[in-house]
Amino acid sequence: MEKLGKGILVRRANSFEQTAIRKFVEKNFSVGWADEISVAYARLPVTLFVATKSAKLLGFVAYECTRRGFLGPMGVVKKVREKGIGKALLLSAMWGMYELGYVYGIIGGVGPVEFYRKTVGAVEIEGSSPGIYGDILRAVPRTRGG
């Protein structure tokens, strides 16, 4: 658990919160991302971190969901971006991956490239787009608001 300023807490999700977190992800991001994170609850430890303030969800990050060694999806609601929440979530997930034995992680579909470069030194893998997602990215909207 990591406490950020102003009562914001980043912690591993609990299995009994699955419905609430899924609804949050569907409402603020996409059904596809909600589907993706469902795999996180089948892993031990759960491979999903959430950011909360006073029991209200602000963001999430998952790993080991789409494929082994993959980071994401990840999202922070627009009104609280630029407050360090995304960075704390990303670093929590990276440590979780490190604990599983990974020294690198793959982000299958990158949104804010510069954020990942700045935060963890991410580099693009030339020729990797669209990667595993192929035509699915065109058929299913990945984001709705974030």
Describe the structure in your own words:
With 146 residues, the protein is of the alpha+beta class. It has one domain (2-139): Aminopeptidase. The protein is built from five helices and six strands, in the order E-E-H-H-E-E-E-H-E-H-H. It has helices spanning 18-28, 31-37, 85-99, 113-120, 136-139, and strands at residues 2-3, 8-12, 48-53, 56-63, 70-76, 106-107. Strands 1-2-3-4-5-6 form a six-stranded mixed β-sheet, with helices on both faces.
CA radius of gyration is 14 Å
Average residue pLDDT: 88
Record the strand order, biggest sheet: 1-2-3-4-5-6
Cα separation of the termini: 24 Å
The main sheet comes to: 6 strands, mixed
The percent of residues in helical segments reads 25-40%
Give a count of the beta strands, DSSP E runs of length 2 or more: 6
Task: Report the CATH topology name.
Answer: Aminopeptidase
Number of DSSP helical runs: 5
CATH homologous superfamily (4th level) name: Gcn5-related N-acetyltransferase (GNAT)
Mass-distribution shape: globular
Unreliable parts: none
Which secondary-structure class do the elements indicate?
Answer: alpha+beta
CATH architecture: 3-Layer(aba) Sandwich
Class in CATH? Alpha Beta
Count of separate structural domains: 1
Q: β content, as a range? A: 15-25%
Run of helices and strands: EEHHEEEHEHH
Could you give a short description of this structure?
This protein is 31% helix and 21% strand. With 146 residues, it is an alpha+beta fold.
